[in-house]
Every structure is written in C-alpha cells, then in structure tokens.
Design goal:
Layout: E1 4-6, E2 24-29, E3 32-37, E4 74-83, E5 86-87, E6 94-95, E7 99-103, E8 107-108, E9 122-123, E10 132-137, E11 141-148, E12 169-170, E13 206-212, E14 217-222, H1 234-238, E15 241-247, E16 252-254, H2 260-266, E17 325-329, E18 358-361, E19 363-367, H3 388-391, E20 398-400, H4 407-411, H5 413-421
Parallel strand pairs: 4-11, 10-15
Antiparallel strand pairs: 1-19, 2-3, 4-7, 5-6, 8-9, 11-13, 12-14, 14-15, 16-17, 17-18, 19-20
Length: 433
C-alpha cells in the first residue's frame, strides 16, 4: 500500500516573506492521482500527433530523452537509508523498528566514533526523524547519491523487514541515462536496489539515481524493495518514504523553521555592530549567510564548513536541508519575475500578488501497521480486555509525517486506568528529537 501524499503550499504569511494565497496539491494513493493549482487557468490539451510505430524496447533504454545537464542546473543530494526508531506521539506510541531516509550529513556513527557503516549509524541527536524532502527547480537535473546503511540483518523490532536491500524510487520524474535510475527491480530490468553488504547480484551499498525535473509538482519518493512483508506495508510502513518537490524555474528555497541562534547568526549587523531590524522589530536577514567556522549543531556535532544557515542549497548545489517546510522565493530572495509564463503565476483577481514568495508544507499521510501502542489495549488483535477487538480499531496506525493523534488513547477510560496502574507500553529505547 502506497502512502497518501499531499503537499499544499500554505496560505500563512511570514514576517520575512508575505506569502500569497497559493495552493498546490498532489495526492497519491494506490493508483489514484490528483493534481491541481488553485487559481491557475486550465487549457485543453493540443490534438494528439499521429501515432508512430514504437521502437523495440530494450531493458536499459532511458525512460525519457536525456536533458542537457551542466553544473549550473544540476542539484545533488547525498541520501542514506538507516534503521531509526521514532516516536509517533507524546503518549508513547512508537515505531521501534523504523527504517528511514536522511541526508548523509545529518547522521553520525551510533558507536560515537569511526566511519559510517551499515548498522553503525543514527540521526544526530538534534535532528528529529521526519520524512525526507528533496527539492529542485523545473529544468534541473537531480542526482541522488544513495547509500544503504541499514543493518545487514533485520533488528528484532516490529516493523523491520527481512529484506535489507533498499533504493530510492521517485514516482513520475523522468529518468536520465538508463533504467538503473529507477530504484526498482522489475521484470527483466537489472536491479537498481542496493544491499548494505556486497552481494553477487546487487550493487554493493551505493548507487546514483539520475532524474530530470521536467514539471512542477510533488512526487512520492520511496523504497520499492519490500512493500508487502505479510501484508503490513513492508518498508513503507516502517518509514522509508519521502517526497521530491519541484519548484518554478529560478526559484530559491530557504528554511522556514530555525532556532533563535540560527536567526541571530543570519541577522545583518550595522556599522555599529548591532543587529539590524525593520521598523516593526523584525530582523533584517542575510539570506546567503553561512555558519561560522567551528560551528556545531545543538547536540555538539560539527557543522560542515560552507553550510548555509537559511539556504537549502549550498554553493556546490548540494541539498543541505531536507525540511518538510520551506520558504520558496524568486531570484535573490525576492519576487518571481513579472510576466512569467509559468501557469502558477497567471493573474488572479482574488490573489493579485501571485509572484510573491510563498511558504511550502509537505504532508505525507501514511499507515503505520507495525507501531507499538502507548497502551496494550490498543494493540491490533489484543484480547487483554473484553473490549480489545473494539479498541484495536482506535490504535495509532495512521500518521502524518511520522506523527499520530493518539485521540483514542487520550479519551479511553480503559487506557486512562492503565496509565494510572503504570502499565503503559513503550518502546525499549528513545530516539532523540
């Protein structure tokens, strides 16, 4: 079962960028697809050209014409897959057998030292587990350098799959070069999944997926290696999914959720050395600011030299932040060019300032079939109480961005009694947030 994915652009306004009321949405669920842009005019498609005889198919044929890729329009992302427990809510529901994607720069050896190796990896302590979001602009080439750091053997937690191969498959984005950029193992095609250890048939640990950002939208990203595992969703239910959001040509992307320390580092200073502010007290930001030499994340992990504070793309065009939220602007952190041919910016009487920067939220709706419940009464199929089968239907098994509501657990008298008795079940270890 594929997770549902919806990526709306918020109507909220920020002090830094007064975002217009712009909405885009893509929903993926099974084989159903909906895409819309609020306020964008629709036009009928041109008449289809006369059909031509199809060329014989070859297993390694590119899925689309190879675009022109140069350093100026190539975006790269270094992505890893790892085993990572995550909490679903503050009541105690969790996914102890979580398997997630993350940027390689956001993980550290779980042993505390040494190189990153399969099974010896975790998110740095100040990085919360969240679905991975990559970004690119229309016309960009996207290179995803993927490393499988899953433990070679499944961990003894609910949700772990015996399949340890993994890959990055992006639904709807054209491939470049060959079918090896598909992140799949289908039919007679060669496998583009990778194993955490060397195997006779699969690539050894690493592969690069080369994609092309042909059109705006939100595209589901997930591992296709195991989507079933007993009917419980496999790697999808464990958390190996995310999204790629394609922005208008020329867009810039900035972090929209930062710490106070980050904001202070990015604030401009006057000749007197004091922070500069707008007349209403908002900080004047240097959107190109970099972390100073020797800077560290709150958990003490060193920040790599040249890492931008607000920009999500560094000078080498590598993605350095995979946040679910972002501020999307035109060139130089300003408006998008007037008269743009992009349908998103067409005139709209209700929203006349459509070329202003906007705030983006990515929402992924997904099933968590193998989660550990905060209270044992809510475990699927439990018979610990006479209401077990009924309470199981209120379990925390549906989530948004790795988070569940816990409404049934909060309101159930049975669960409340369990809490008073101290019998709430929790996972064996806590992941940092």
């Amino acid at each position: 079962m594929h997770p549902c994915l919806s990526a709306p652009v918020s109507t909220h306004r920020s002090a830094a960028f007064p975002a217009p009321h712009r909405l885009t949405a893509v929903i993926l669920s099974g084989l159903a697809l909906f895409a819309g842009v609020a306020g964008a005019a629709t036009t009928a498609p041109p008449p289809a050209a006369p059909a031509k005889a199809a060329a014989p198919a070859t297993p390694n044929a590119p899925a689309a014409a190879t675009p022109h890729c140069a350093p100026a329009n190539t975006v790269s992302a270094h992505v890893v897959a790892l085993d990572q427990q995550f909490w679903l809510n503050r009541l105690g529901a969790s996914q102890p057998g979580g398997m997630i994607f993350a940027l390689e720069r956001d993980v550290v050896p779980s042993s505390g030292s040494g190189p990153l190796t399969a099974g010896n990896v975790k998110l740095r302590d100040s990085k919360r587990p969240r679905p991975l979001v990559l970004r690119a602009n229309v016309g960009d080439c996207l290179d995803i350098h993927f490393t499988n750091l899953l433990n070679p053997t499944a961990l003894s937690f609910p949700g772990q799959t015996a399949t340890r191969e993994a890959g990055v498959h992006v639904m709807g984005m054209p491939l470049r070069d060959s079918i090896l950029s598909d992140g799949s193992y289908v039919g007679l095609n060669p496998s583009s999944l990778v194993s955490p250890i060397k195997g006779p048939a699969l690539p050894a640990g690493q592969i690069t997926y080369r994609l092309y950002a042909e059109a705006e939208g939100t595209f589901l990203l997930y591992s296709t290696a195991d989507n079933y595992s007993g009917g419980l969703g496999g790697q999808l239910s464990a958390g190996l999914f995310g999204a790629v959001t394609i922005q208008p040509k020329g867009a810039e992307w900035y972090r929209s959720q930062v710490t106070r320390e980050d904001l202070e580092l990015a604030t401009k200073h006057g000749k007197d050395g004091k922070p500069m502010h707008t007349p209403d007290g908002q900080p004047l930001l240097d959107y190109a600011a970099l972390y100073p030499a020797g800077a560290k994340w709150p958990d003490g992990t060193p920040i790599r030299p040249g890492t931008p504070i607000l920009r999500m793309l560094d000078a080498k065009r590598e993605i350095v932040a995979s946040d679910l939220t972002a501020l999307i602007t035109g060139p130089h952190a300003g408006n998008f060019p007037a008269g743009s041919a992009d349908p998103v910016f067409r005139k709209n009487a209700i929203e006349p300032n459509r070329t202003e920067p906007y705030r983006e939220f990515t929402l992924l709706y997904h099933e968590i079939f193998t989660s550990v419940q905060a209270f044992p009464e809510f475990a699927q199929g439990t018979t610990s109480t006479t209401l077990g089968p009924t309470l199981g239907n209120g379990a925390d098994a549906f989530a948004i961005n790795y988070g569940t509501g816990g409404i049934a657990a909060e309101t159930s008298p049975t669960a409340s009694a369990s809490a008073r008795r101290g019998t709430a079940s929790t996972a064996s270890s806590r992941s940092s947030s």
